[in-house]
Write a structure and sequence with these properties.
Oligomer: single chain
Distance between the termini: 24 Å
Radius of gyration: 26 Å
Largest sheet: 6 strands, antiparallel
Number of helices: 4
CATH architecture of the largest domain: Sandwich
Shape: elongated
Length: about 325
């Protein structure tokens, strides 16, 4: 047994006249350099067989052939992520990974199967069905099935949904929108910004102390993220109508917004252009936490200051939603 693309050595006698090698119904490659009377070195084809007989066949110069039992271990689907983890019912979600060999099925949490629109080896487009719920998705082929470690419509540990009350916020309520003529909702309210910012402009997008309603959601960060920060990431959905090239977004979190945010913050330089589509982006929680002086866990929550300030002018025309601190997906 060997996997797709694996290099193998065939050892025996009278192998020097081999001219062809087949694995199931797929041809392998034979190089004279690697064919001797006693051995053949070759690779298992990466192409998927249409007919599986679990046999390897050698064809020799005189037309004779030799069959040998051999199982090609064809990979089950590998799921890396989604272009956007939040997609409305009826819209098309894009799943990224590998080993997506047709026929393919995509099942959402809630037990409903999506309509597969298109399949490449590393990308699936699937229409989100009625009844799809937050949670992992499962992709199945004839060669196995895989459940994602990431979640569709991930609602774990939300730290900024923009759907909560806003009492005590310094800045932000003016930019929280229930709808927009250009950018569609994906999960209730979202932050919507459309401003031309000059070099070193100071634009406060979302700011509030630990005693404000911001803490109602920042308290959702699990204690495990403080104990093992490398195991977590910040995720959010973003939709840009102009490239966020050159932007510097200073992201503070802690207990003393007014006293600390000037010197303590994670400097996010997104350089993102989603061309008017929602996409899920990731920030390493370990870096964010370290740059915020590894503030102590507090079950009552934290203040935040997310504000623009940097050396380049920026056309800030975008929306963000569903900020969350979630376990890092490894598959």
């Amino acid at each position: 047994m060997a996997g797709q693309g694996a290099m193998i050595a065939i050892v025996g006698q009278n192998l020097g006249d081999a001219r062809e090698i087949w694995f199931n119904d797929q041809p392998g490659a034979l190089s004279p350099t690697f064919v001797t009377n006693n051995s053949i070195i070759t690779r298992v084809p990466t192409e998927i067989p249409l007919e599986i007989n679990n046999q390897m066949k050698l064809v020799f110069a005189n037309g004779d052939s030799l069959l040998h039992d051999f199982v090609v271990d064809i990979s089950e689907p590998m799921l890396s992520g989604m272009l956007s983890e939040y997609v409305n019912t009826g819209d098309v979600a894009v799943i990224v990974g590998n080993y997506f060999y047709e026929p393919v099925t995509v099942t959402f949490t809630g037990g409903v199967e999506g309509e597969v629109i298109s399949v490449d080896d590393d990308v699936i487009e699937v229409r989100v069905p009625e009844g799809a719920e937050p949670g992992p998705i499962t992709v199945a082929t004839n060669f196995g099935e895989t459940e994602s470690e990431f979640w569709f419509r991930d609602n774990r540990n939300i730290i900024a949904s923009f759907d909560e009350t806003t009492e005590g916020l310094w800045h932000g309520p003016d930019y929280i929108k229930a709808d927009d003529p250009v950018i569609p909702n994906i999960s209730g309210n979202f932050i919507r910004v459309n401003r031309q910012l000059g070099a070193w402009a100071w634009f406060e997008m979302y700011v509030g102390g630990a005693d404000s309603d911001i803490a109602l959601e920042t308290r959702n960060i699990p204690q495990a993220a403080f104990a093992n920060p490398s195991d977590y990431v910040i995720k959010m959905e973003i939709n840009t109508l102009a490239p966020l090239t050159g932007a510097n977004i200073r992201m503070y979190m802690g207990q003393d917004v007014g006293g600390e945010r000037g010197e303590t913050y994670y400097n996010w330089t997104p350089n993102i252009d989603t061309n008017g589509e929602w996409e899920t982006i990731t920030i390493p929680w370990e870096e964010f936490y370290a740059d915020n002086a590894e503030f102590a866990y507090n079950p009552n929550g934290y203040g935040v200051s997310f504000h623009f300030s940097g050396p380049l002018a920026v056309e800030a025309n975008f929306a963000i939603d569903n900020m969350r601190v979630v376990p890092k997906a490894n598959n």
